[in-house]
Design brief:
With 231 residues, the protein is of the alpha/beta class. The chain contains 7 helices and 12 strands.
Length: 231
């Protein structure tokens, strides 16, 4: 029997690095809030997927108002976040059943492809987890107390989301206490002894963090025919 699929979309940004009064997930991209583009992708992947949106409680009313303004009708559930991304996920895993596939995704990654989402769910169904990544094309150097030296970029990967896990694994891993080394879900799960499976991501899947990222995202969207990602 196929496991239920859940998209746990975490959007706790306050726009500090964007130097914006509006949280970065609410900034407009091609005339709509970034977060709506992100939710769209999971709905296009599977119209029956359960979408859980985690926001700071103080942003609920603003989000609902934006949904009204933009006539955004995709079904989703709202959940309150915690002090950090880790605590937001830890807190809301209580609302997820033991045996399902959970895709944890950054709300400000609106350019994830349908193909990437598909690969992650398919691989996690086989291996228990799947984490998308892309190769590094730029030259790298290591900086330490001795100065700097070339790094072999072929042994490194840039990590993206959605990171997909069997829910029982994710729940077990998030019962730990928070540690600063937990920079993503894979690092939390790996710390419990699980081996992480890497799958191919898509290069356009950037995380919108600073102002210039919005311009880059809009440029990339002009070249992306969204229909090509339907499976």
């Amino acid at each position: 029997m196929a496991l239920e699929k859940i998209a746990l979309i975490v959007a706790g940004g306050k726009g500090k690095r964007m130097k914006a009064q509006v949280p970065k997930q609410f900034l407009l991209l091609k005339g709509r809030p970034v977060l709506m583009h992100t939710i769209d992708k999971f709905h296009w992947y599977d119209g029956g997927i359960r979408i859980m949106l985690v926001l700071p409680a103080g942003q609920f009313s603003a989000w609902k108002e934006l949904c009204d303004i933009h006539n955004f009708k995709i079904k989703h559930e709202l959940f309150a976040g915690g002090e950090t991304r880790f605590h937001s996920i830890q807190k809301n895993l209580e609302s997820i059943p033991e045996q399902c596939l959970v895709a944890v995704h950054d709300g400000v990654r609106p350019l994830v492809s349908i193909e990437t989402i598909h690969r992650c769910f398919a691989a996690a169904g086989e291996s228990g987890n799947a984490v998308p990544c892309v190769e590094i094309s730029e030259t790298m150097r290591i900086i330490d107390e001795h100065g700097n030296r070339p790094a072999d970029r072929t042994i490194y990967r840039l990590i993206q989301t959605p990171q997909v896990f069997i829910s029982s694994i994710l729940k077990e891993s998030y019962r730990q206490e928070y540690h600063p080394r937990f920079t993503d879900d894979a690092s939390v799960v790996e710390s419990k002894g699980y081996t992480i499976r890497l799958v191919e991501g898509n290069p356009e899947n950037l995380k919108i963090t600073v102002n210039k990222d919005l311009g880059i995202a809009e440029y990339l969207m002009k070249d992306m025919d969204e229909n090509q990602y339907h499976l």
